[in-house]
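Lab notebook, bench 4. Still working through the backlog of constructs that have no structural model yet. Next entry is a single chain of 98 residues. Request: give me the structure tokens for it.
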Amino acid sequence: MDTFESMLLGWQLIGKVLGIFGMRRVSRAVAQRARGIGMAIHYSNPTCLPAALEIDAVFHSSPSDLLRVSEFLTLHAPETPESEGRACLVRVFPTVKH
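Model written out:
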């Protein structure tokens, strides 16, 4: 198989961990779709969601902890001093422009 053909295969998502930074209405919809293709959901939020909204998602109080376990990451939070978002991303991905 040549390089071009191997690029068309993509990623296998079943069993992978999707990290969601900021679990709100839109990100809960993303989580629902990700569960449908077999992904595990982990999230970081200022507060833990009620069990009815959390379903099987795993809460991380620290964004750094979320980044450590995530194989894929989606960001759904505004950049605020409280969110720590940019600081965490810069620590994990030092080449990110900020």
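Notes after review: Residues 11-92 form a domain with the Rossmann fold fold (CATH 3.40.50.720). Helices lie at 3-7, 25-36, 51-54, 63-69, 85-92. Flag for follow-up if needed.
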